[in-house]
Write a structure and sequence with these properties.
The structure holds two protein chains of two kinds. By secondary structure, chain A is an alpha+beta fold. Chain A has six helices and three strands, in the order H-H-E-E-E-H-H-H-H. In chain B, 51% of the residues are buried. Classes of the chains: A alpha+beta, B alpha/beta.
């Protein structure tokens, strides 16, 4: 069944039991991103230690409302980036974006994306790609802002 | 419900809509319940466009050759048919790109009035003036008015809605007052299905000398509408929501207003005299149709109006009412499904209610419900349907919306209800 390809157990697990959810202190930057076509929203905070690409992502916390795909993708994001350097996190993000924009033709690398590989099926539905990327784009924006302001918020 | 005419022969009628015969998602029967977003087009509409292009295509209002004459006749003929369809005069019908452009045309004309001559006095708007809209507006009838307020310093105010999904007219005499210049409201909500009472709003607006602008996008395609009878000053509707082509919409304006209203878009076709330093403008409707207009689309819309007239708008409305009632009752039987809008059990019932059925399913986001429905071949819209403030009012980020039209039947309703149940099973909420 096609639905099972999209809604992998991993996605539903992250949706029902999200990792890292809730807004936490301290944080260096907070952003609010929306998907204007469907009204999904995410508020996301990033705390960095250090600066530039060598900075460590010490925390990502978030709150929001949205479909299972957007919520699960943000949950997976926290698994993939917390504790990594900004450079590593952005590398992972690039792989995830490539997978999502690959229309189902990109073979995901589990070593890089871990649970993120479960979103391969979502990439076949162009309307849902933005859902999967909502949290990631918020993360990218938040890191840029956190790096831009030395002392955070 | 009383039956006033023979019911629609949906089976025969569906044969005119080739697309409804296709399958989707690996062989599922297409159940198209998104006509509120855009309707499908019957073959006579496509034939009319094709025939026009193959026999009479030319730029209208320009040429002296035979094709231009025929194109003029076809274009103006369509204008006449559309005017008859909504009970107004042909020169009160302006063709626009879509309904959104129609509203912007009025909104910008009002902004432009500040620099126009004394004949445009009544369109002027500025600080201290008020614009009144409603909380159930489509963004198309909200954002342009927000922008007018920003450009001119006027104040935007609005009617709220009741918990039951009706327009809350409490305080109408305060909300529409001597400072009010415009009252812009929807005839039928694209989310709630609610049909608003133009009479009450028009009467109060007239008392204070305010202009009324009716968004008729969801009413004209689905029920008999007599715009002159409603007494509104302006109204808009789109071609593509009423079996016609996209790229053509309609603005209606009363003659006495259009004749003194400043233009929005200027250029060719809309002029009377042009000198290097200044120009004068053609009478309406040409004054509001700058440039070479969409022509085959207007002709197609004329054919759509013929098609709807032949079916009978009373019968369309009655048919949709039957389907809506069945959908509301069917969905009400599912635990965890809540309708956003008037229901049969609600305090105001389903009189004055159109066929938009918006709902939420406990524990499943609308996007996810829509995905399962799509997998079952059921095409609905999910999200805020360009009515974000309305969704916020009801405390929901998004809804699933099914909309019915003359080519839907009770099997489609059953497919919708069954697919929602499938979504609940899939996500384990029941």
């Amino acid at each position: 069944m096609r639905l099972d390809q999209m809604y992998q157990e991993i996605i539903l697990d992250h949706y029902k039991r999200p990792h890292g959810r809730g807004l936490r202190e301290p944080y260096g930057a907070e952003v609010h991103h929306v998907n204007p076509t469907c009204g999904d929203e995410v508020t996301l905070r990033v705390q960095l230690t250090g600066s530039g690409t060598e900075a460590t992502v010490s925390d990502v916390s978030y709150d929001g409302q949205g479909c299972s795909i957007s919520q699960a993708a943000t949950s997976v994001l926290t698994d993939l980036v917390i504790g990594r350097t900004v450079g590593q996190a952005f590398g992972t993000m690039d792989s995830f974006v490539e997978l999502m924009q690959g229309r189902g033709q990109v073979e995901p690398d589990e070593d890089v994306l871990a649970d993120g590989i479960a979103f391969a099926g979502v990439a076949k539905y162009p309307a849902r790609v933005k859902c999967a990327l909502l949290g990631w784009m918020a993360f990218k924006d938040a890191v840029a802002r956190a790096n831009g302001s030395e002392d955070g918020s | 419900m009383t039956t006033t005419a023979l019911p629609l022969d949906v089976e025969t009628l569906r044969k005119d809509f080739t697309i409804l015969g296709r399958t989707v998602r690996d062989g599922k029967r297409l159940v198209y319940l998104d006509s509120g977003a855009t309707s499908q087009r019957p073959r006579p509409v496509l034939d009319a466009e094709r025939t026009f292009i193959e026999t009479s295509n030319a730029a209208v209002h320009r040429g002296a050759h035979q094709l231009a004459e025929e194109a003029d006749a076809a274009y103006e003929g369509a204008r006449g048919k559309i005017a008859d369809f909504v009970g107004v005069r042909a020169n009160e019908i302006v063709f626009t790109k879509n309904a959104t452009e129609g509203i912007n045309l009025v909104a910008y004309a009002m902004s432009n009035a500040s620099t126009a001559g004394p004949e445009s006095e009544r369109f002027r708007i500025g600080p201290g003036d008020e614009i009144v809209v409603t909380e159930m507006e489509h963004h198309a009838n909200l954002v342009p008015w927000q922008q007018v307020a920003e450009r001119t310093g006027a104040t935007l105010r609005w009617f709220g809605v009741t918990d039951d999904g009706r327009l809350d007219l409490t305080g109408i005499d305060e909300l529409i007052n001597d400072r009010t210049k415009v009252v812009a409201f929807t005839h039928q909500s694209n989310v709630l299905g609610t049909v608003n009472p133009p009479a009450a709003l028009v009467a109060r607006a007239r008392e204070v000398g305010a202009l009324t602008v009716l968004d008729a996008c969801q009413s004209v395609p689905h029920s008999p509408v007599d715009l002159r009878g409603l007494g509104v000053d302006y109204a808009v509707f789109s071609g593509h929501k009423m079996l016609g082509p996209s790229g053509v919409g309609v603005l209606y304006g009363r003659t006495e207003l259009l004749s003194v209203m400043p233009p929005f878009l200027t250029g060719g076709s809309m002029i009377e005299m042009v000198h290097m330093a200044r120009s004068t403008f053609a009478p309406p409707p040409q004054r509001f149709e700058a440039g070479v207009p969409m022509t085959s689309q207007a002709v197609g819309l004329g054919a759509a109006v013929d098609y709807l007239t032949a079916v009978g708008m009373d019968r369309v409305a009655e048919h949709e009412h039957r389907l809506t009632d069945a959908a509301l009752r069917g969905l009400a039987e599912l635990p965890g499904v809540r309708i956003v809008g008037p229901t049969p059990e609600g305090p105001t019932g389903t009189a004055d209610r159109g066929s938009a059925v918006a709902f939420v399913v406990d524990g499943i986001h609308a996007h996810d419900v829509g995905q399962v429905l799509d997998d079952e071949g059921v095409a609905v819209r999910v999200g805020h349907h360009c009515a974000w403030p309305l969704h916020r009012r009801y405390g929901v980020p998004a809804t699933v919306r099914a909309t019915f039209y003359l080519y839907n039947d009770l099997d489609d309703v059953a497919a919708l209800v069954a697919a929602v149940r499938t979504a609940q099973r899939f996500f384990g909420t029941v």
